[in-house]
Write a structure and sequence with these properties.
This protein is an alpha/beta fold. The chain folds into 2 domains: 104-300, Type I PLP-dependent aspartate aminotransferase-like (Major domain) (Aspartate Aminotransferase, domain 2, 3-Layer(aba) Sandwich), CATH 3.40.640; 302-433, Aspartate Aminotransferase, domain 1, CATH 3.90.1150. It has 16 helices and 12 strands. It binds pyridoxal-5'-phosphate.
Length: 437
Amino acid sequence: MSFACPASWPVTGGGRAPELTGARRLAACAPREDTRPCTAVTDAPRRLGTLAVHAGEPRPQPGDAVVAPIACTATYSFRDTAELRDHFEGRVTRDEYGRYGNPTVSVAERKLAALEGAEDCALFASGMAAITTALFALLRPGQHVILGADGYRRTRQFVVDFLGRYGVEHTTVEPGDHAAIAAAIVPGKTRVLLTESPTNPYLRVADLAALAQLRRPHRGLKLLIDSTFATPINQRPLSQGADLVLHSGTKYLGGHNDLLAGAVCGDAALVGAIRELRGLLGGVLDPHAAYLLDRGLKTLELRVLRQNATGQRVAEFLAGHPAVAAVFYPGLPDHPDHAVARAHMRGFGGVVSFLIRGDEATTSRFIDRCTIPRIGPSLGGVESLIEQPALMSFYELSSEQRRAVGIRDELVRLSLGVEDPDDLLADLERALAGIAP
Ligand code: PLP
């Protein structure tokens, strides 16, 4: 007899936790003869810190382990043909083949769904696999996408350069320009409004409620928010009217610079359609990476609250330093979206972008003088990372081409880890002193 313990804790506020699918899936990997009742199930609402630790995990776990195991298998066996028929005819929900699902991946999916207040979540091999699969699932030739102008370069490249090959048109709009967004909507043709919030690298924050309002009269137009920089600790876009939340799980969700992952969260029908396409395109998350992601998620709130606090301190310090020409951080009063961010976000995150007073070489000199942040792409991990976007993601462009896409040679993107904030500030102060004019 199989074991039927609800797998996930209830979600706080909005959204039904996807415990049914998940519970039935996980039942497949539990000992079949185990008939003990699950005593720890409760309807009490749980806050984010509790969900981060426990949501999505069956009780008891297989083998009575405290930690969800890694189901290291590419395929799943059936006891007999009757069980196979039950599976294909929908009488049981269980795993069949690794490209369609894995119990360890399901644990992390349910946990992230609970954190986002989503009915369902599908995980992917990377953030780009999540974004591209979601867009392919939603769009058809002849349709149209509106894309926020500030954002991760590869997302822009996919929409601007690649989707056109399949007959999908696009319009890019400046962050916060709601009149331009309204003007760009082609009724019946615009199917996706996609923006990051906060954006990469200028940390622009979208007024999600206003975007949801703009979208409301247009049936079939979906609002997609890449919430990588915010995480569900700082903002929950579904509760503000977004249809789908996207993540590069490589960043804060994993949190340790040791995995690649992507996620799509939203209502069951939409995520289900995207999961179907994932099974066809194949960008699935490996169970080992899913285990690391689940482990990283357990400390998400601790890490992000620390990174929020450090981000604010560092931004204020940089804003007052003579060697710094400008700071882009939504927690600063002069940021264009400060009021929106204050109203809708719990914290402003651990990424601070700024302009060094000087040129490309001065900026490189500053970066080379930093001893705690490592030079590298990516963000959101426990190790601080620093980069000069002109010499990282935009290396092959000329200075003029970079300026045309808004990337100045003196721009620095600093992702603060969880090191001691006093040590980080001292390191930045020493590095800046060495380049002072
Ligand atoms: N979205 C944002 C905001 C990003 O910054 C990135 C990567 O830097 C991605 C998506 C892509 O994620 P991944 O590198 O996991 O494919």
